[in-house]
Amino acid sequence: MTRLAIVGPIHPLRGGIAQHTAGIVGEARARGHDTRVFSYRRQYPSMLFPGRTQLDAGPPPPEATVGVCAPIDSVAPWSWYRSASQVGAFEPDVVLLQRWHPFFAPPLAVIAHRARRRARIVWMVHNARPHEDGVPWGPLLRLGFHPADVSLVHAAAEEGALRDLGVRGEVRSVAMPAPSSVRRVEPSDSRRRLGLDPNEVVFLFFGHIRSYKGVDVLLEALTRLSADGAPWRAILAGEWYVDRAPAEARLAKAGLSGRVRIDDRFVTQEEVDDYFAAATVAVLPYVSGTQSAVVPLAYAYGRPVVTTRVGGLPELVVDGETGRLVPPGDVPALVEALEEVRRGQRFSPEAVSRAHASASFPGLVDELEAIVRAAVFP
User: Fold this and answer.
1) Residue 93 sits in which domain range?
2) Residue 67: strand, helix, or coil
3) What is the Cα–Cα distance from 186 to 319, expressed in whole angstroms?
4) What is the mean pLDDT of residues 270-276?
5) pLDDT of res. 51
6) CATH number for the domain that contains residue 371
7) Does the pTM exceed 0.90?
8) What is the mean pLDDT of the chain?
9) I need a surface site. Which of 15, 121, 169, 303 has the fewest CB within 10 A?
10) What is 341-378 written as a DSSP string?
11) Residue 182 belongs to a domain
């Protein structure tokens, strides 16, 4: 049995990384690994957080109810050393550090440096560089990495990004898994709960609204959809981290306010189930980025994806089978992809199912176990 320490957010902190941590914990414990989570008591200072709250008010998943402590304060250096001592006292065989923004590199580097003396260090790198940031992070992008460490990424494109930064350790790519909390529900029931017509095509944009995600491109594409053809509705479900007023003005000017539903809030898991069950297709019109957990999430609900050829997204979508790929920022191409869906374009449910099966937390934990075996029996 392996002693696994995970350094990263988990409930009551909200968001995709917290869900990712919970997924690893659940699978590792199911296999008998002694797993502890060392989370953040303060993740972002309030003045730097663009949303309304960093906390999930919903009930904690089972993975977050035992074996979890929150010693890390991102802006209090003394807590980093105390956290490193707590990780060391657990005497882990492997320490997995969740890395998604260079803001957190200093505390993670302190913990990794101290734990490296006895444990194998594995970085779970969600983003080698920030999605969007005008701050020159410089050395913080590389801080903490060591040639003896292993880095896991969720896209081959991110391996290249790490190499470009000068990271010299081993890098392995493993598919991005969907959260383990996915629950499929009846689409007709979901549409009724959401007040949607059972016969309309539903385009779903899901997640925080940020500038790199191309919502402005999507809105422009929606204004160009044909007045003929199948009725449609678009839902933008997620908290806005940018000014919403320009989007609402554009929709009002185009007469689409009734066609485009904006649900500007953090979405609970029960609502996630309904949104994806009700959707015809998930739309990710990103103009830049690394990868997105929304793609495997859509596959987990059996939904195809329309997205762009940026970062690792083309690695996740088989054009014409599990969805459609279009160039980033190309409004006419996005319009044509959406019109194909309106015309009844059929994607392959079998291909979507295979894509979902290939991206799982068991696969990720398989990689962790292989790393431990290689360390013991090189």
Assistant:
1) 3-177+360-376
2) coil
3) 27
4) 93
5) 75
6) 3.40.50.11930
7) yes
8) 93
9) 169
10) HHTT----HHHHHHHHHHS-HHHHHHHHHHHHHHHH--
11) no
